[in-house]
Design goal:
The chain is α/β, with parallel strands linked by helices. The strands form three sheets. A five-stranded parallel β-sheet has the order 2-1-3-4-5, with helices on both faces. A five-stranded parallel β-sheet has the order 7-6-8-9-10, with helices on both faces. Strands 12-13-11-14-15 form a five-stranded mixed β-sheet, sandwiched between helices. Strand 9, helix 10 and strand 10 form a beta-alpha-beta unit.
């Protein structure tokens, strides 16, 4: 956002700059009316803030001169004044100022200046899909949107609009549609198609337009997924206000989603390997395994450890170790299925929770992973891994319990869950290490380690 200030008082210009200037708001200034008008002939700021007394003219004269510059018609204009009388304010609003701020009221001035951000949304850019079959209405509405600087694609039928939404790669900021259209797809039908469409289009804001303005119709349209409703004939200000509100609300929601995604990334994703971390595993791994065990579905837990990882780090440096960890994570992802959980447990240990996989399937996948790790040699560094597996399905559930009970528990104390599967996989991993490393071992194929 670019805010242009015209005020002969250097102190007030500094107050505004200190209050609003940041990464998102750039401040440009002029100290008199003529300099301000000269600047505005070449530039189009997001908002204009003008003192009443400018030295060479007053604010009303300044505003009258601006009216000849049609490109600034929709730019919000604010008056800074010491005159708080109702008559003066009324005169300022009649002249065309968007808002009047009192200079002497610093707390209110500070809050009001921050509100400029909202007014400046009048100058947002937007890409619009406009659906209207009456040419005269389309010409008028398209002129309104193009005057606001928006890019408008106009079609006359719901079928055409649906085809464009299906093919276009660049998303629209808003869809404006009449309810009665040429063809078989009505405005309501188009709204339904959008709301039931793919992720790329289903959240596009929709402004519905109709010549009928009864309450029942409005409620019906809104319940079907329109964001707002406006009846024909409408004026320019009302139409733009509704459209801008829908666009800005969508952008605010998108920013929130992006912030939540960034927070999720920070909390749940391992920064080195790009896969899930232990926090994610603790949050969701237990739930997945509990669900599978409750339904007596097959599930496997794979525990992978890079062989002699400490020695590699000590001899070749941490960059070599990092390259190996990234390589292992990539191999695990490439061999994973959509409903797997793949995570870096810590250090050089990785966990894969494999749903709907019996022991033979899990064993085959683990062996493939072991071979690929040995063949990868990132940065020319040879590395191997050992893998321990614990599997549960109808055939070997009792054998898993027997294995765990033979280690240090009695069968009646054993509850099959994430912890017990992890313990069995860890036992298998230890056995693989003891057997010489670079091996895969599975729980029910082993005797308990001594």
């Amino acid at each position: 956002m670019n805010l242009f200030i015209v005020d002969p008082s250097n102190s007030y210009r500094n107050v505004i700059k200190l209050t609003l200037s940041n990464e998102e708001t750039q401040i440009t200034e002029a100290s008199n009316g003529n300099d301000g008008l000269a600047y505005l002939k070449k530039h189009k700021p997001s908002a204009i803030c003008v003192a009443h007394e400018l030295g060479d003219m007053d604010s009303f004269t300044f505003l009258n001169e601006l009216k000849f510059n049609k490109t600034l018609n929709n730019t919000p204009k604010f008056l800074l004044t010491s005159n708080s009388s109702p008559d003066f304010k009324r005169k300022a609003y009649d002249a065309g100022f968007t808002e009047v701020f009192i200079k002497s009221d610093f707390p209110t001035l500070k809050r009001a200046l921050h509100s400029l951000m909202l007014y400046a949304t009048l100058n947002i850019s937007a890409r619009v899909l406009y659906v209207e079959d009456t040419q005269s209405t389309a010409d008028y509405t398209r002129h309104i949107m193009k005057s606001a600087g928006w890019k408008v694609m106009h079609v006359k039928s719901g079928e055409e609009a649906a085809a464009i939404l299906d093919k276009t790669k660049k998303s629209f900021d808003i869809v404006v549609t009449d309810l009665v259209l040429d063809g078989e797809v009505s405005g309501i039908g188009l709204i339904n198609l959008i709301r039931q469409g793919n992720e790329r289009i289903r959240d596009i804001p929709i402004l519905a337009v109709s010549g009928w303005n009864d309450l029942l119709r409005q409620v019906y349209v809104l319940k079907h997924g329109a964001g707002d409703f406006i009846a024909k004939p409408f004026n320019e200000t009302d139409f733009l206000a509704r459209a801008i509100n829908l666009i800005m609300n969508k952008r605010a929601r998108d920013e929130l989603v992006d912030e939540q995604a960034a927070l999720y990334q920070k909390v749940n994703i391992d920064s080195l390997t790009g896969i899930n971390n232990r926090h994610f595993l603790d949050e969701y791994g237990d739930k997945l395994i509990k669900s599978a065990l409750a339904k007596n579905e097959a599930i496997a837990l794979m525990l992978l450890d890079v062989d002699q990882f400490k020695e590699i780090n000590d001899m070749m440096g941490h960059s070599a170790g990092d390259a190996i960890l990234k390589s292992v994570a990539s191999i695990l992802k490439n061999n994973g299925h959509s409903n797997d959980i793949i995570a870096r447990y810590g250090g050089d240990e990785f966990i894969v929770i494999i749903k709907d996989s019996n022991q033979q399937e899990a064993l085959k996948r683990a062996e493939t992973i072991r071979q690929q790790v040995a063949e990868a040699e990132p940065l020319g560094i040879a590395a191997t891994c050992s893998i321990g597996l614990a599997c549960h399905d109808k055939k070997i559930g009792l054998q898993l319990v027997e294995l765990l009970s033979s280690i240090d528990e009695s069968p009646e104390d054993i509850e099959l869950n994430y912890q017990t599967l992890f313990k069995a996989a860890d036992h298998s991993l230890y056995a693989a290490k003891q057997a010489g490393r670079n091996q895969v071992c599975i729980n029910n194929l082993l005797k308990p380690a001594q």
